[in-house]
Hints:
The chain is α+β, with helices and mostly antiparallel strands. It folds into two domains: 2-58, no CATH class; 62-114, no CATH class. 24% of the residues lie in helices and 37% in strands. The protein is built from two helices and eight strands. The strands form four sheets. A two-stranded antiparallel sheet has the order 1-2. A two-stranded antiparallel sheet has the order 3-4. Strands 5-6 form a two-stranded antiparallel sheet.
Amino acid sequence: MASKSSTCMNKRGEPLTEYEFEIQAESAADYINTIYGNDLIPYDCTKCRYWHLTPKSRHTPSRTCDYCTSASGKPKSLYETRKGADRRASILAEQGTPNLRVYECPHDNGWHLTSSSW
């Protein structure tokens, strides 16, 4: 069953719809894509551990890094490719988070974002 998230918001500050299971999110994406012509795909949210939908063009697969943390102590997202990390940095810049840089994870196979200057 779908519900509105209490933790995850869209760029307008509205709660995202969350799905408990991948199959539910896939079904919702198929329905929306068919009825409205959108190109949505489900993704497993690392923040709330539920499933959300996103436009395929904005999807940047990531997972939580087992080694690296942010300045606030939270685990960093690890992007599979530099291209994916670059795309995420561009998306976040469009949403008002400028000056993010991409760097290779020193402990794992992937890429991180940072706002700190070295």
